[in-house]
């Protein structure tokens, strides 16, 4: 009996355990089933969400057409830069009224010829200074100085000791025989100083003051030249006045635009680069970016790179001993700071140049490298340079020589449909004047005084507000025939005496009209004024608004109002 009772209890215990285990297993399975159902439901929802988004999201091709650069400005809004230019001008690639003007630099009837004025025993030698374009200005002025002194000019000696460290001589950059031949009616040019009498006469070294007038040459140089027979004018950059009569200004133009031709090898390589650009697009922009470390250091500007930037650029700035302490905020307010590559790109997009525009960039080492260039590349992906257009083998003969490389950039920039400069240096000035002389091809100079505050405040506006302001501020800075007063700026950038209006051609004034130009005296700098740097950059801060003698301005419409004043200030800095 006890055994039967024990078996019943034991069976009852097993039954209870089985029930507990069954309940536990059922709970576990039920929880797993619910978990799986939840996962499945979530997965379905996610798939549905992606399916809905794919219906409304643009394809990559559409996105490229809609947006080229996207700048996040704040938590509430975004600054979308359109891919299309949304042009505000009828033709971005030509200047208004350009067909009504032409270069005119032939010598006047009363301009004395070489054989009637050159003294047989007077020789002038010069030593240029700086980079390619600074040296070019020295060569041009040397011809005029020799004419003033009734002397023979010895082929100029180029600068081999400056920052550029280029040992090229004149004949390795320019066609010497053409130079001599073309100027034969203006001055006599020889390749080397001859032996006078029975012995070689060493030239007497003279340093001419900056902005020296014809009278200054007569007083300071001529007596020495008469006595010594040969003078050597050293560091010959900007040693001739900006204010000369029309005949001498036209001589400057004949030298600059006709007598100075690059060698066949340089011109041939430059033409090849231009052809490569033309094969890619009917029109192209050339941009002289000038955002190298030395340029930024000299400018004294600050671009937000913190202590690293201040230290690096500050160390480079020590190269110029006479530079005052920099005030970045003041420099930016006065429009003296080069725009960043991104800012240049935004300016061009606002002016109407779209994402399909082809751009040739003439530049050295960019401060910040590819990271700095990335926003410009995003805005203009058709981005080219010497290095991308030519092979290493083709560039090999030029690479060791900075002036020859600069000459290649000069040729492409000169041949471009639109030239954009980011500074007021020598290449910018020389090319601006050349493009005016040969048909007023568009030359865009950023109006830094107005654009810099706009860029600093762009986080607080939309593209639709930003772009019209850029276009407004750039009026007077686009290379139009009627932008500048005669005599304003350096003559090399505004060769008024050498540009004539075609007879009988009506000019569309579009709000422009003749303006009275007051007589302005050129400020003569003191001899002890600081020397220009080894940079190919304009350090001259003298006021340069000059009324040229005999300049006819009645037929040339000029822009009036506040924008005209700003242009004058820009070219006077």
Automatic annotation (TrEMBL):
The keyword Coiled coil does not apply. One of its GO terms (biological process) is fucose metabolic process. The keyword Phosphoprotein does not apply. It holds the Pfam family O-FucT. Keywords: Carbohydrate metabolism, Fucose metabolism, Glycosyltransferase, Membrane, Transferase, Transmembrane, Transmembrane helix. The chain crosses the membrane at residues 37-57. GO terms for molecular function: glycosyltransferase activity. Belongs to the glycosyltransferase GT106 family. This is O-fucosyltransferase family protein.
């Amino acid at each position: 009996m006890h055994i039967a009772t024990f078996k019943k209890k034991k069976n009852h215990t097993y039954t209870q355990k089985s029930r507990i285990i069954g309940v536990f297993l059922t709970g576990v399975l039920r929880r797993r089933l619910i978990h799986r159902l939840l996962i499945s439901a979530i997965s379905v929802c996610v798939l549905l969400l992606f399916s809905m988004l794919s219906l409304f999201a643009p394809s990559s091709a559409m996105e490229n057409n809609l947006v080229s650069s996207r700048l996040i400005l704040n938590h509430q809004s975004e600054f979308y830069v359109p891919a299309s230019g949304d042009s505000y001008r009828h033709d971005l690639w030509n200047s208004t009224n350009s067909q009504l003007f032409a270069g005119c630099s032939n010598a006047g009837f009363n301009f004395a010829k070489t054989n009637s004025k050159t003294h047989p025993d007077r020789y002038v030698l010069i030593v240029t200074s700086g980079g390619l374009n600074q040296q070019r200005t020295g060569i041009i002025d040397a011809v005029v100085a020799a004419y003033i002194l009734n002397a023979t000019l010895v082929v100029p000696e180029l600068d081999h000791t400056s920052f550029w460290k280029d040992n090229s001589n004149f004949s390795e950059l320019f066609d010497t025989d053409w130079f001599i031949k073309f100027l034969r009616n203006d001055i006599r040019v020889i390749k080397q100083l001859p032996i006078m009498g029975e012995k070689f006469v060493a030239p007497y070294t003279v340093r001419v003051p900056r902005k020296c007038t014809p009278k200054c040459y007569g007083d300071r140089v001529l007596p020495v030249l008469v006595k010594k027979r040969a003078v050597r004018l050293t560091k010959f950059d900007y040693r001739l006045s900006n204010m000369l009569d029309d005949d001498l200004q036209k001589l400057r133009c004949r030298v600059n635009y006709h007598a100075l031709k690059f060698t066949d090898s340089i011109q041939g390589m430059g033409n090849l680069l231009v052809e490569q650009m033309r094969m890619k697009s009917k029109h192209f922009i050339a941009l002289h970016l000038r955002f190298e470390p030395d340029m930024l250091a000299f400018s004294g500007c600050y671009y937000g790179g913190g202590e690293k930037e201040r230290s690096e650029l500050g160390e480079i700035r020590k190269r110029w001993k006479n530079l005052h302490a920099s005030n970045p905020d003041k420099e930016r307010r006065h429009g003296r700071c080069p725009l960043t590559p991104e800012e240049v790109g935004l300016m061009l997009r606002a002016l109407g140049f779209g994402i399909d525009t082809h751009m040739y960039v003439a530049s050295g080492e960019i401060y910040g490298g590819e990271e700095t260039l990335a926003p410009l590349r995003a805005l203009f992906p058709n981005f080219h340079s010497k290095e991308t257009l030519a092979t290493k083998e083709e560039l090999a003969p030029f690479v060791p020589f900075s002036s020859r490389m600069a000459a290649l950039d000069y040729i492409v920039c000169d041949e471009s449909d639109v030239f954009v400069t980011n500074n007021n240096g020598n290449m910018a000035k020389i090319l601006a004047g050349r493009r005016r002389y040969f048909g007023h091809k568009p030359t865009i100079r950023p109006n830094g005084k107005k654009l810099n505050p706009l860029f600093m405040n762009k986080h607080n506006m939309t593209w639709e507000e930003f772009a019209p302001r850029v276009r407004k501020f750039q009026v007077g800075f686009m290379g139009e025939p009627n932008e500048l007063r005669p005599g304003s700026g350096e003559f090399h950038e505004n060769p008024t005496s050498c540009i004539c209006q075609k007879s009988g051609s009506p000019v569309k004034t579009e709000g422009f009209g003749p303006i009275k130009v007051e007589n302005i005296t050129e400020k003569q700098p003191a001899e002890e004024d600081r020397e220009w740097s080894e940079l190919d950059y304009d350090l001259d801060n003298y006021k340069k608004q000059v009324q040229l003698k005999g300049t006819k301005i009645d037929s040339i419409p000029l822009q009036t109002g506040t924008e005209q004043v700003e242009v004058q200030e820009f070219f006077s800095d």
